[in-house]
């Protein structure tokens, strides 16, 4: 990675992704406005600006739920890890939709209000904090995330700091829920909208809780340790070809043991890009490939193939009696190792 600025380059599949995503957003707003216009006939009709800002606000909430659901879904169902590849594009789109919603609100209601439009967002006439301020705080977090979504900031800040910053999306989620409950739902007579919002929150909570329990159970499994400290990770034949088995060592570090044919190699499970779960990926083009954004590492030395320069720690392996054992002491990132060979006659 490099901290030097590099212009965003859209590959063809990302261009298609953005075009499809943008089209779906436009379609959502059009359908929302059209259906609302038909349903709300005079004298209960709603002005077009209000319909549009409601459509954008609803779309932003839907996108926020999708963004937050992708992570646990990919953990629970590995075949869906491809959804992670363009999550940042989805997050930037979320900010643009939420920003447009805020801009229309500011222009529409600020145009005939008795209070300064900017002050009206920050403080209510009675001096209290209104739902507008909560939405404003959530928008600031989404702005920070969108502005730092480029790999330049990821390299400049380091993936730990960068990831900690982007975890504030959960703070934004709580603020958005409070913004909606204290705002539009306060006078809403229909139970449909509160029910949908509760369904989204419960679903998100269930997904994250289930994925967290599965991770904790996997980490709680204590592998057997030999007298010389090497850790038994199981039968060599149990590791599927082109995939990896992830084991949590006693020190909390996770190691991914990749199998490529009859050769086994061990790498850190933490991708150098965004800290993604490398062991949940597969071997492609001879390299261990992170499922999040496709960053690749040669399995024998933990180095990205030229011209890329990322490096991750490697580990020593050995096979005894068909059992794979790993030395828990990590090598320095990029240290070459000799892959071990699964003995002939082992059930594969």
Structure characterization notes:
The chain has 348 residues and is an alpha+beta fold. Strand 3 (254-260) and strand 4 (263-268) form a beta hairpin. Helix 2 (48-76) packs parallel to helix 9, helix 5 (131-147) packs antiparallel against helix 8 (169-182) and helix 6 crosses helix 7 (159-166). It contains nine helices and eleven strands. The mean pLDDT is 87. It has helices at 12-39, 48-76, 87-109, 117-122, 131-147, 151-157, 159-166, 169-182, 192-220; strands at 231-235, 244-248, 254-260, 263-268, 282-284, 287-289, 296-298, 314-315, 317-320, 323-326, 340-341. The protein is 46% helix and 13% strand.
Q: Would you kindly provide a brief summary of this structure?
A:
The protein is an alpha+beta fold and 348 residues long. It has helices spanning 12-39, 48-76, 87-109, 117-122, 131-147, 151-157, 159-166, 169-182, 192-220; strands spanning 231-235, 244-248, 254-260, 263-268, 282-284, 287-289, 296-298, 314-315, 317-320, 323-326, 340-341.
Helices and strands, with pairings:
Layout: H1 12-39, H2 48-76, H3 87-109, H4 117-122, H5 131-147, H6 151-157, H7 159-166, H8 169-182, H9 192-220, E1 231-235, E2 244-248, E3 254-260, E4 263-268, E5 282-284, E6 287-289, E7 296-298, E8 314-315, E9 317-320, E10 323-326, E11 340-341
Antiparallel strand pairs: 1-10, 2-3, 3-4, 4-8, 4-11, 5-6, 6-7, 9-10
Helix pairs in contact: 1-2, 2-3, 2-8, 2-9, 3-5, 5-8, 6-7
């Amino acid at each position: 990675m490099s901290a030097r600025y590099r212009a965003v380059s859209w590959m063809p599949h990302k261009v298609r992704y953005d075009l499809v995503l943008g089209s779906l957003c436009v379609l959502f707003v059009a359908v929302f406005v059209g259906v609302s216009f038909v349903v709300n006939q005079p004298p209960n009709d709603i002005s077009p600006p209000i319909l549009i800002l409601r459509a954008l606000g609803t779309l932003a909430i839907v996108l926020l739920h999708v963004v937050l659901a992708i992570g646990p879904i990919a953990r629970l169902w590995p075949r869906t890890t491809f959804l992670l590849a363009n999550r940042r594009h989805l997050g930037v789109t979320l900010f643009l939709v939420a920003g447009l919603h805020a801009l229309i609100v500011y222009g529409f209601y600020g145009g005939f209000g008795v209070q300064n439009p900017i002050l009206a967002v920050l403080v209510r006439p009675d001096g209290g904090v209104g739902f507008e301020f909560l939405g404003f705080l959530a928008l600031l977090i989404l702005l920070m995330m969108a502005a730092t979504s480029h790999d330049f900031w990821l390299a400049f800040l380091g993936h730990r700091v960068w990831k900690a910053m982007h975890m504030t999306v959960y703070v934004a989620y709580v603020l958005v829920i409070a913004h909606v409950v204290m705002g539009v739902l306060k006078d809403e007579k229909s139970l449909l909208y509160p029910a949908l919002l509760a369904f989204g929150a419960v679903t998100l909570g269930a997904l994250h809780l289930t994925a967290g329990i599965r991770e904790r159970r996997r980490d709680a499994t204590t592998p057997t340790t030999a007298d010389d400290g090497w850790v038994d990770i199981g039968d060599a034949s149990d590791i599927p070809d082109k995939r990896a088995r992830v084991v949590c060592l006693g020190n909390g570090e996770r190691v991914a043991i990749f199998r490529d044919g009859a050769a086994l190699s061990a790498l850190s499970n933490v991708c150098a890009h965004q800290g993604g779960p490398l062991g949940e990926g597969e071997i492609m083009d001879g390299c261990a490939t992170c499922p999040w954004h496709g960053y690749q590492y040669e399995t024998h030395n933990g180095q990205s193939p030229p011209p890329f320069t990322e490096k991750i720690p490697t580990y020593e392996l050995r096979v005894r009696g068909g059992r794979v054992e790993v030395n828990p002491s990590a090598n320095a990132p990029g240290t070459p190792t000799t892959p071990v060979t699964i003995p002939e006659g082992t059930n594969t």
